[in-house]
Write a structure and sequence with these properties.
8-stranded mixed beta sheet, Alpha-Beta Plaits, alpha/beta, Amidohydrolase, Aminopeptidase
Length: 379
Amino acid sequence: MIEQLKKYRRDLHQIPELGFEVHKTRQYIVDHLKQYDCEITEVCGGVCAFFQSNTEQDSGASQKSAIALRSDMDALPVAEKTGAAYCSLHEGSMHACGHDGHMAMLLAMADELSRIIQSLPHNVLLIFQPAEETTGGAGDMVAAGILSKYNVKRIYGFHLWPMLEKHRIGSRAKEFMAKSSEIDIRIHGKSAHCAYPEQGIDALAIGCELINELYQMEKTELSSEEFRLLKFGKMISGTVRNAIAAETVLEGTLRCFSEDTGSFLSSRMIETSAMLEKKYGCKIDFHRTDGHPPVINDTPLFEEAKELLAEFGFHTFEVPFMLAEDFSFYQRAVPGLFLFLGTGTNIPLHNNLFDFDEEVLQTGVNAYLKILKEVYIGK
């Protein structure tokens, strides 16, 4: 199987596409799925493959339950520098987040399911989903009704993870990956010559003070046990070196795991802004844009997987990751478990040199098979 996994991964690696515009990728997947006895559905720019088991149906159930396995499809706007023989053929785009590997695992699973589906007590749905890196294609897939259509009762997904030892599998119960919100603040001051600062309202200085106030607030006003993050990565201000800045723009990110925490921090940012408005006579606009919900792993599924996948050196992460992932949309509809598959590489995701040993994909397939063969989901 490893040679087939390599072929899938390297073929897909050469045709990276962005967002929902994954036409070549989708066609590649569909062409390979057509050889199997499965129901293929193209939906929201992605593809679903439904494998139906004809084993005796649960008494009283109108449709046999299904387990879903999910892979993302899209790449990143990164110019690849790996120099690999299978390097990207699409200039300026690269599979730098391992989605090519995720798809390869599910294509290999399709081949396995063609042989074992009739021995399973449940149906299986393979989900190939676009736009994980952008607007969150998972939300569109769920809204299209694919989970309810196929009576999906639980869902699993793997993501390659460089910081985890090669072939090792890791996850944690409950909070796993954060909700991401964008914070945009615009401070309106008044320009003046630096020689006459009393005639202006220094938007740059106010911006610096606001950042310090917000960092201190986030650090001291919430319990250390409450997972969250507030950081500003961009500040735009001023026009020339000898003039008081009339305007400052701050762009940051808020990561958390609960609505209460997000609402509290937003309220305090607004209150702190109002305090500085009163103090300096400026005007401050605050805007928060929410991204994907948090990935909250189902505890029973985690405990079950921890035992089932012990042979893979299962690792339980002590704290969640302040990264965002749209797998969360599936988890809002059905119990779900998101796991990391270690590549043991020094180069991080989203790097133009990212690559990995494809043998780890075999580990992912073996883990998927273990789950499908060992779990029972009932009606």
